[in-house]
Write a structure and sequence with these properties.
It is an enzyme of class 1 (oxidoreductase). One of its GO terms (biological process) is L-proline biosynthetic process. One of its GO terms (cellular component) is cytoplasm. With 266 residues, the chain is α/β, with parallel strands linked by helices. It has two domains: 159 residues, NAD(P)-binding Rossmann-like Domain (Rossmann fold, 3-Layer(aba) Sandwich), CATH 3.40.50.720; 92 residues, ProC C-terminal domain-like fold (Orthogonal Bundle). It is 48% helix and 15% strand. Helix 6 links the parallel strand 7 and strand 8. Helix 7 packs across helix 8. The protein is elongated and about 70 Å long. 32% of the residues are buried. Bound molecules: 1,4-dihydronicotinamide adenine dinucleotide and (2S)-3,4-dihydro-2H-pyrrole-2-carboxylic acid (A1CAB). (2S)-3,4-dihydro-2H-pyrrole-2-carboxylic acid binds next to loops.
């Protein structure tokens, strides 16, 4: 039985807990959580999450401890758990910008740390989580953490020094994609298309396009070419996107995302 605890049960902590609870990992896991707003943990009772009275209690009861709090809270919370961290504890940080050395500095010099960058689709078992293995954790411990995220989506292992750059790609990108989707649905509303049908048609286009990228074997440039009939509608639309510098806007969004991660970095 793996004991898995959460310090913070907000958007992401709850999403991972619900992901674990809905996966085949649940029978082998005992789940704990602490959040100062107790109602957030109470709302997870249906997932079998046991409520703790403090962050330190989560660490005392759990081998794998997820730090699912805002980066700005680490300086306040880590000293509160330091005494409870043992050679067995594996601290899993999902916070943007936070590094392993900083966590050790505020807990124990020997603390085992895994850095992870998940995303909210994990709630539906469709997550994408980047993980970095720190030398402090064994292969077996890292495999357990990877398995937890893997129970609710795909995972990829990257170098610890790339954990800030990856945020734009999977951590924040869902918001960018939702905004893109909003543009289409706003257009559908403007021209009077039925809301539900437009939503279903666009969302399936999003899913289908994603599958074409992963499964068709064609490059993205070739996939764009396949849709773009000479003198047709797509090229007319693409002209506008190029003129509006959509690719530059995306690069700028990713750059700003990374820059912010460095600002939050500790
Ligand atoms: N929301 C997202 O899509 C993603 C978020 N993250 C990371 O996850 C972390 C949490 O983000 P969200 O869940 O979005 O924020 P959130 O604000 O929804 O959740 C944070 C939770 O921590 C709780 N909290 C505050 N002080 C606490 C304390 N002393 N002890 C325990 N809990 C405390 C808050 O009440 C709140 O429920 C952040 O570090 C963020 O960088 C990472 C990937 C994606
Ligand atoms: O916005 C944030 O800072 C967090 C990290 C990635 C997604 N949400």
């Amino acid at each position: 039985m793996n004991t898995i605890g959460f310090i913070g049960a907000g958007n992401m902590g709850s999403a991972i807990l619900r992901g674990i609870a809905g996966s085949d990992m649940k029978p082998e896991a005992e789940l704990f959580a602490y959040n100062p707003t107790e109602a957030k943990v109470d709302a997870l009772a249906d997932c079998g999450v046991q409520k703790c009275k403090s962050a330190a209690e989560v660490v005392e009861k759990s081998r794998y401890v997820f730090l699912a709090i805002k980066p700005q809270k680490f300086e306040e919370v880590l000293p509160q758990i330091a005494d409870a961290v043992t050679e067995q504890t594996v601290l899993v940080s999902i916070a943007a910008g936070i590094g392993a050395e900083f966590i050790r500095k505020l807990t124990k010099p020997f603390a085992k740390v895994v850095l992870a960058m998940p995303n909210t689709p994990l709630l539906l078992g469709e997550g994408a989580t980047a993980l970095a293995k720190d030398d402090s954790v064994s292969d077996a411990e890292f495999a357990v953490v990877r398995n937890i995220f893997g129970s609710c989506g795909m995972t990829a292992v990257i170098a610890p020094e790339q954990m800030k750059e990856v945020i734009a790609i999977n951590g924040s990108s869902p918001a960018f994609i939702y905004l893109f989707a909003k543009g289409f649905l706003d257009y559908a509303a403007k021209v009077g298309l039925p809301e539900q049908s437009a939503k279903e048609l666009f969302v399936q286009s999003l899913i289908g396009s994603a599958k074409m990228i992963t499964d068709s074997g064609y490059s993205i440039d070739e996939l764009i070419r396949q849709v773009s009939s000479p003198g047709g509608t797509t090229l007319a639309g693409l002209d506008q996107l190029y003129e509006g510098k959509m690719l530059d806007a995306v690069q700028n969004a990713c750059d700003s995302c990374t820059k912010r991660a460095y600002e939050l970095s500790k």
